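Notes to self, G-D-S-L family lipolytic protein:
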Amino acid sequence: MKNILKYTFAVLAVGFVSCEPEFDSPVTDDGFYSSGTANLSKYVSVGNSLTAGYADGALYITGQKNSYPNIMAEQFAFVGGGEFNQPLMNDNMGGLLLGGTQITENRFVLAVDANGNPGPVRLEGTPTTDISNKLSGSFNNMGVPGAKSFHLVAPGYGNVAGVPTGSANPYFARFASSENATVVGDAAAQNPTFFSLWIGNNDILSYATSGGAGVDQTGNFDPSTYGGNDITDPNVFASVYSQQVDALTASGAKGVLVNIPEVTSIPYFTTVPTNAIPLDAATAAQLNAQFAAYNTQILPGLTAMGVITPEEAALRMINFSAGQNFPIMTDDDLTDLTTILQGAPFSLPPQLAALLGQLRQVKSDDLIVLTASSVLGTTPDPNNPQGVIGVSIPLTDQYVLAVSEQARITAASTAYNATIQALAGAKGLAFVDAKAALARVANGGVVYDGGVLTSQFVTGGAFSLDGVHPTPRGYAYTANLIIQAINDTYDATIPTVHIGNYATITVTNN
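result:
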């Protein structure tokens, strides 16, 4: 059972392409390219980790240099674009320090274990980027990893003193103009002639990656009361997003707005199959015998008592068979039956009642998150070899994104995207449908000169080792999408880049 998910990382490493980026169309004559009606002399990008160039579970120099805004700025240089400064990290380790103490983890690299199985591991070593050593000057890349929509307008979000308590962001603390500055304020203060804004992913992503452990705050208009894994109310999003667009266009700047992709289509949610438990016929029969009384007596009894509906009873049924099986899990959305099962007429022992209190089996339309691969099928107690997570020990709710939780995410992101597209239209700004673009990557892939870009974990080329953020190749694809939208909206002819000339994952990518 311990090796149940080794296939998750049993992949072939793909080669690292270290060529300098080329253009799809070579420059042959002066004036071949044009910025059209856009003025790209002062470009500022605003957003979160995707804008910063975050990859492999961390922010590091190589990732930042391959961020989509930096790739775009290099292309803008051919049509009058100016200098593009980024708050670069000190190294390629990826971790952050605060007063010499490490506060964020180093990045992932692809390594091979003693048995020859490749998989992501954290890079060993001590990082050298200390957030207490603040950077001076202004920065064109205002991407702040971890930022939600309302964080961009929050004074003090870059206050170093607030980092230990979670009231400030360590990445913004490195380069905020003052302790009371806002991200959008610092961006607008640069008087950009052109901007990009991509924010809102984290307003649903943290809820998703935590397996729905947060709260859907729809209806709560006070973001100061939100938890870190909560879904932002769509009205709150609409209000702060409108403020951001107004601030960035106040001096007449043109720009591009990017909508929110379907987060459940990224490798973090698609890599581990829902039927991840292989069982032989004898083991399946033994497990079914153990759950027989639960299925045939306890659940019908609870239904007869009116405690649960027949539909919930059916959802709670546990059944195994020879072959690949769905693991058992606890579902926080279900009625907690622990107290009831300890009382008459069931009188179950406390430990058993707690086990069955919110128990169900994973369904085919649930999603198991990537981090579940480290626990699913393992035996946490060496003295109890029968205690297998997913079989006799439930997979906790944090590892499964249930259908009901997916619906909350979809409802919120749909509302966010309506706001983004409406503002792009009202302001005459370029608009990028990142949701549709990611869907193309996830459903068959995107063809480029060097191959096909897919969302397959590790081998697909688009996503880094955290299963959430792009590789340099994925960021190049993103840059091209935005450039194409700018060209279409502003009658420009900015050159796109050759995706295959940007790196993807390799065993030696360190």
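- Residues 1-29 have pLDDT under 50 and may be disordered.
- The longest strand covers residues 43-47.
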